[in-house]
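Here is one chain, start to finish.
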Amino acid sequence: MDKNDAIPDNIERKLDHPHPAPSPEALRCPTLERIWLTVDETVRYLGLPSRRALYQAVRRGQLPIHRMGRRLRFRRAELDEALSDR
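Its structure:
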């Protein structure tokens, strides 16, 4: 058996005995806080009435923001620090 034959055999064995996918609950670890928050998560975390209120605070420079492509992300620690300075 040469090296090229071993690759399909390994794939077939994995397909015959797949590992179960972790449940959503297993993916969430209660002891670890999420570092990066999405816009909606940030709105809930800060208790703001709407996404619009968050965008206004960002425009005014009241909240630190990071852009990942076109998406906005917020670091929880930076939000806490910005709020404690007020």
